[in-house]
Amino acid sequence: MNHQLQLLQKVTNKSERRILGLMSGTSLDGLDLALCKISGSGLQTELQLEFFKTIFYPEIFKAELRSVFAQKQVSLEKLTLLNAYIGNYHADLVVETLKDWGVTPDEVDVIASHGQTVYHAPQHFHQQVAYPNSTLQIGDGDHLAYKTGILTLSDFRQKHTAIGGEGAPLAIYGDYILLSSNVENRILLNLGGIANFTFLPQNNKAYQVVSSDVGPANTLIDAAVMEYFQQEYDAGGALAESGKVNQEYLDALSKHPFLSKPLPKSTGPEMFSWNWAKSVLQDLELNLAPEDILATLTQFTVNGIAEPIKEHFNLPNTSLYVSGGGLHNTFLMKKLQEALPEIKCQPLEVLGISADAKEAILFAVLANETLFGEPIAFAGLPAVSLGKLCFPT
Question: From the centroid of its chain, how far is CA 207?
Fold first, then answer.
């Protein structure tokens, strides 16, 4: 047998695996690394988070990402170069982090790498009938596997588009496996650059699970804070809280066609860009204070999350659990709870899962399912395994 297949066989024969999940999201702030011990698969999965770390990207690297991020036209050369560069860069971060944790690469069975989304184009966005749902993540898995010496699964979203999905959100798989409950209905809300949630029915029936993007979370707020205050984010939502919502601007933003599309659906900064939000404001010829703009964008974000939940999932015995960077925006969370008075909004930690580590953990779970589990069908799509396998040599 080929020695690479022998390596794969050795890993798949283990009753417990160490899988390192990597996540770099649309906020472009850094790389999340979650080292997990996992046994079992499907609803019998047991997971222990051993270590978690976020490595924040330097400004020069974020500028490189922004040069190809969420734009219709970019340098093909720069995109090609970054695909290899990010794979190598993430590999360096993995090696450095494992050393800090006192873990050697040969003690890690698998890396599960999300890569870096640079363009998300479901058909409802690109509107070209001859072309399918599409999405692109860069950060080549072969570079990552070779430089770390660790078996790597990457490019998870392509299989989802191949079977007719939009490539997002993929949280549905890990949410169902790790966080299903037979005592309550659960809504698992992630507030990254984009807001998405998974509804898990109390009966644990996979065909009733719904997972969808619903609109922006941090992307517009962060962009406005950078524009007006040269800050990365609105700490605690203090700037937005000091402003007042402008109803005319809010109403105009709320006419975005994505918001009226049925669930499930996916979106990205391509659709909810700062240029779009500014153009809406300019068309209204309003002269608003920056704090009022932030207050309005925050309320727009809250409405985009709360309205589909109230319409479809405001059921008895339902709890909402929040993860992602938006959880730390206390003003945003306060307004969200006000918009959903009958549903208790809580941090994901109360369920024993790190809210900051969740997305990286979920990709570790996806890799575990690909190697050890049986595919699960959701949302009327075929049951498939996700991710491409990259050998170290």
Answer: 22
